Amino acid sequence: MIELLFFDMPVKHRVPEVLNDKCRHFFEARWPDESPLEINAYKLKILTGLGQGTCLKLMRDEFYVPNEKVMSCLCEVFHLQPGDFLYHELALSSSEKLLPNEKPLFTNPVL
Known about the structure:
Shape: globular
Distance between the termini: 19 Å
Strand order of the largest sheet: 1-2
Low-confidence stretches: 1-6, 91-95
Mean pLDDT: 82
Order of helices and strands: EHHHHHHE
Largest sheet: 2 strands, antiparallel
Structural class: mainly alpha
Radius of gyration: 17 Å
Strand content: 5-15%
């Protein structure tokens, strides 16, 4: 039986990582006296105007996929593209781990 692995690839986001690496200067400009600077959901809410619950999900839940409004807001405020913070992760079980030079059998669906 052939299984398509495409359906086992969850979309994840890396918003906290991107905010720390690429967008830190936006937070430093707003909170210049804070040392060390902590980037958290409250500060994300202040800079973006997004709801507190949405900001908490973005900072804590990597499986939360932001909707179009949230992605648009992040892109406009921080000068990003959705590809900067969204990605697919191949969900393989521990018995199906790939070797470093191997590629997954099915990476794109056949339409």
